[in-house]
Task: inverse folding
């Protein structure tokens, strides 16, 4: 008899070791670490540049992303993010976790769960802009090269999680 339903998540020690090896490979073969928020900024800069080139060129935030000619589809971070999405899908497929479901607590409506997820994503996106990097860029890549700002970011992220988790845990009951 074959078991039905999703398989357990990957062993966190094995997954963490694999992620560390991927990060090491990125430094060795690509000459830079991992990150995700730069991919979104690169695509946004290229899109804005196609619509309003003069305004985008004068924008200090987008200027760095336009320096290489605004070709987001050849940007390292865009290719990395595409690979991460493909890898996430393959992992979910192998674990039997590809069903489209909204995971939520018993007392939470699906619309409220989606609203909380969108708000959380917005806060994380704004935080990535203020921190000048996302959690993967700051914590993984910056932490790996012992950047003091990244270690401060890690401490702040864990501190915020410890404060927020008990409050949000009630939502999942």
Result:
């Amino acid at each position: 008899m074959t078991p039905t339903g999703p398989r357990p998540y990957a062993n966190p020690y094995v997954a963490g070791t694999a992620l560390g090896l991927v990060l090491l490979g990125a430094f060795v073969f690509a000459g830079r670490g991992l990150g995700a928020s730069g991919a979104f900024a690169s695509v946004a800069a290229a899109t804005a540049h196609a619509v309003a080139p003069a305004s985008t060129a004068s924008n200090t935030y987008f200027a760095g992303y336009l320096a290489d000619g605004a070709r987001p589809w050849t940007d390292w971070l865009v290719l990395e993010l595409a690979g991460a999405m493909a890898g996430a899908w393959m992992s979910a497929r192998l674990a039997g976790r590809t069903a489209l479901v909204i995971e939520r607590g018993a007392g939470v409506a699906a619309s409220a769960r989606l609203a909380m997820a969108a708000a959380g994503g917005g806060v994380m996106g704004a935080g990535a802009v203020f921190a000048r990097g996302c959690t993967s860029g700051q914590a993984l890549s910056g932490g790996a090269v012992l950047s003091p700002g990244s270690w401060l970011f890690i401490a702040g992220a864990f501190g915020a999680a410890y404060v927020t988790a008990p409050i949000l845990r009630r939502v999942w009951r």
Notes: The longest helix spans residues 110-131. Helices lie at 12-30, 37-51, 53-57, 60-66, 76-94, 110-131, 135-144, 148-169.
